[in-house]
Specification:
Layout: E1 4-11, H1 21-37, E2 42-44, H2 79-88, E3 91-99, E4 110-117, E5 123-128, H3 148-151, E6 161-164, E7 167-173, H4 180-187, E8 193-198, H5 214-229, E9 232-237, E10 240-242, E11 245-247, E12 252-254, E13 260-263, E14 270-277, H6 281-285, H7 291-294, H8 301-305
Parallel strand pairs: 1-2, 2-3, 7-8, 8-9
Antiparallel strand pairs: 1-14, 3-4, 4-5, 6-7, 9-12, 10-11, 12-13
Helix pairs in contact: 1-2, 4-5
The structure holds 4-methylsulfanyl-2-ureido-butyric acid.
4-methylsulfanyl-2-ureido-butyric acid is lined by residues 47, 133-134, 146, 174-175, 178, 198-200.
Length: 312
């Protein structure tokens, strides 16, 4: 019996500042219903799928941003999505801003998170974004901010892989997809499908020559990560012009061969569907990327011990 997982990549168009959670959850449920019509097993939503991409604004008092975060998952506003998904027998992966309870020192933590839910409604995994891009303080020369490093702490736990949908499923969020270590840490746990939501502004203020290459770089990193680890990669955007900022669409479903098997053709709410054969991963994991046979961890020590460049 081949292990086929039918995936719905639920790209979203813009979410504006005035949109309520109820408005947004209705859109998520609509995409879920589209998935049900295609017989999907799991629907993958973007990074920060419940709100506008608020790190584009810098609020002097971070507590004023708390309304953009969820204090629990499911939260009261997302419960209808959990209920409908369970009724339909469809799993999902949802990106959201997480505000924790105070820890033992009375400190709350803010993470850019994703939750993975099985077809029976149980939460199988929770991931907190590890690579946080952008800047920590207000940068007045930018046309818009990318203050993720102000709004989110980096996730403290390494990339995980969970048993779900009959296979081995991992998660990453947006900027994580640009780092080969993200894929490899999951590859070393046998990952067969990586779920990745993203918000990628077209304009990159530190080097605008990259603007025209956003789509190329998006595909480049995810195709390479899929191939080099013999895994499916599902990349799902929140695209389009949101509060005046244009963001990349081009959500895609990538096979373990590195080939794109489905790609969004709009920048709005759009569901891509693909039947993903998890057993196809073994063609790569057992041959060119047979890690046990060919990897040389004894000469890779810098990868895990050194952060920046040390020139010879
Ligand atoms: N959300 C996110 O991580 N976006 C980044 C934008 C580039 S860094 C300002 C990304 O890697 O797509």
């Amino acid at each position: 019996m081949r292990r086929i997982v039918t995936v719905g990549a639920a790209q979203m168009g813009p979410i504006h500042r005035g949109d309520t959670r109820k408005d947004v959850v209705e859109r998520l449920v609509d995409l879920l219903h589209q998935g049900a019509a295609h017989g999907v097993d799991v629907v993958v939503y973007p990074e920060l799928a419940l709100t506008t991409f608020f790190p584009r604004w810098f609020l002097e008092h971070i507590g004023e941003a708390d309304h953009w975060y969820e204090r629990s998952m499911p939260s009261p506003d997302t419960q209808p999505l959990f209920d409908e998904a369970r009724r339909l027998g469809i799993g999902f992966c949802l990106g959201y801003a997480e505000l924790t309870e105070p820890d033992e020192r009375g400190v709350v933590h803010r993470y850019n998170s994703q939750v993975l839910v099985e077809r029976d409604g149980s939460i199988v995994g929770h991931y907190r974004k590890i690579h946080i891009p952008g800047h920590e303080s207000h940068e007045p020369d930018r046309p818009f901010q990318h203050a993720e490093r102000y709004y989110f702490e980096p996730g403290p736990v390494e990339f995980g892989v969970w048993r779900a949908f009959g296979g081995l499923v991992g998660m990453m969020i947006c900027n994580d997809r640009r780092w080969p270590e993200s894929y490899r840490v999951m590859g070393l746990q046998g990952v067969e499908m990586i779920l990745c939501g993203y918000n990628t502004p077209i304009h990159y203020a530190p080097d605008p020559s990259q603007d025209v290459l956003q789509g190329f770089h998006n595909a480049l990193v995810m195709q390479a990560g899929a191939y080099q680890n013999g895994t499916w990669v599902i990349g799902v955007a929140k695209g389009g012009v949101e509060e005046g900022v244009d963001s990349l669409g081009q959500s895609c479903i990538i096979a373990p061969s590195g080939q794109i098997v489905a790609q969004a053709y709009t920048t709005g709410d759009e569901l891509l569907v693909a039947r993903c054969d998890l057993d196809w991963c073994q063609r790569y994991k057992n041959t060119l990327f047979d890690f046990e046979r060919y990897r040389r961890p004894e000469v890779y020590s810098r990868i895990a011990s050194q952060r920046g460049v040390i020139e010879p």
